[in-house]
Specification:
The structure is a single chain. It contains eight helices and no strands. It is an all-alpha fold. The chain has one domain.
Length: 205
C-alpha cells in the first residue's frame, strides 16, 4: 500500500483552513436570522480552534487521504435552535446551505489566486488549485442528505418527521464511512470537484 504523506498533509491543512469559514458562515447566518446560540457558544469567529473537531477535521481526513478512500471529514457542528430562527425550518435550511455556499465562494476566490500566482509563484498556485478542488469537494460532500451533514437539514426543511431524522442520525456516520470506503461515492465527488475547479479556472482567464 502506497501512503502519500505529503498529499495527506496538504489535504488536512487546507481542509482545516476551509472548514473555518464554512462553520463561521453557519454561525453568521444563524445569528442574522435571530438565533444567538452560535455567538453564545463562541462560534461567531474565524478562529480555527473554535471550529475544529479533532476526529472529523484532523484524524479522519488524514486516514482517508492516506488510504485513498476518498476524503471524509467535517468541522465541529454549529448548534442552532430552529425555534429561534426566523422562518423556522426554512431558516434552518438557509443556515445549512450557508456552509457549502461559503465553500463555493472560497473556491472562486482561490481560482483567482491560482491565476495570479501561476507565473511568479507556481508552488502557491498548486496549493491554491488544491484548495479550489477541496473547497468544492467539501461543498458537495456536505450536501449529502445524511446526518450530521448540512444536506440532512434540508430533510427537516422538507418536513420529514423528526423521529425519522433521529433514526437516520443514529447510523449516519457509519453510512458515510461505508459509502466513502466501499463505494464509488468518493470518486464521483472527486471527479465533480475537479471538473468544477477546471470550470472556475476557465472563468478567470
Amino acid at each position: 500500500m502506497n501512503l502519500n504523506l505529503e498529499s495527506a498533509a496538504v489535504n488536512v491543512s487546507l481542509f482545516w483552513l476551509l472548514t473555518t469559514p464554512h462553520e463561521y458562515a453557519h454561525a453568521w447566518t444563524a445569528t442574522r436570522l435571530g438565533d444567538d446560540t452560535p455567538r453564545r457558544q463562541g462560534r461567531l469567529t474565524l478562529n480555527p480552534l473554535a471550529h475544529v473537531d479533532w476526529i472529523g477535521t484532523v484524524i479522519l481526513p488524514t486516514v482517508t487521504s492516506l488510504l485513498g478512500g476518498g476524503f471524509l471529514g467535517w468541522g465541529k457542528p454549529v448548534s442552532t435552535d430552529p425555534t429561534r430562527l426566523r422562518g423556522g425550518r426554512n431558516g434552518l435550511a438557509a443556515v445549512a446551505l450557508a456552509g457549502p455556499g461559503s465553500n463555493v465562494v472560497l473556491a472562486m476566490l482561490l481560482a483567482v489566486v491560482v491565476r495570479l500566482a501561476a507565473g511568479p509563484a507556481p508552488a502557491l498556485a498548486d496549493y491554491a488549485f488544491r484548495g479550489v478542488y477541496l473547497s468544492l469537494y467539501l461543498a458537495l460532500f456536505n450536501l449529502i442528505p445524511v446526518p450530521p451533514l448540512d444536506g440532512s437539514k434540508l430533510l427537516l426543511a422538507l418536513r420529514i418527521p423528526v423521529v425519522i431524522y433521529r433514526e437516520l442520525a443514529q447510523f449516519g456516520f457509519l453510512f458515510l464511512v461505508v459509502a466513502m470506503t466501499a463505494s464509488d461515492l468518493g470518486r464521483w465527488l472527486a471527479v465533480l470537484s475537479l471538473q468544477g475547479a477546471q470550470f472556475l479556472l476557465s472563468l478567470v482567464r
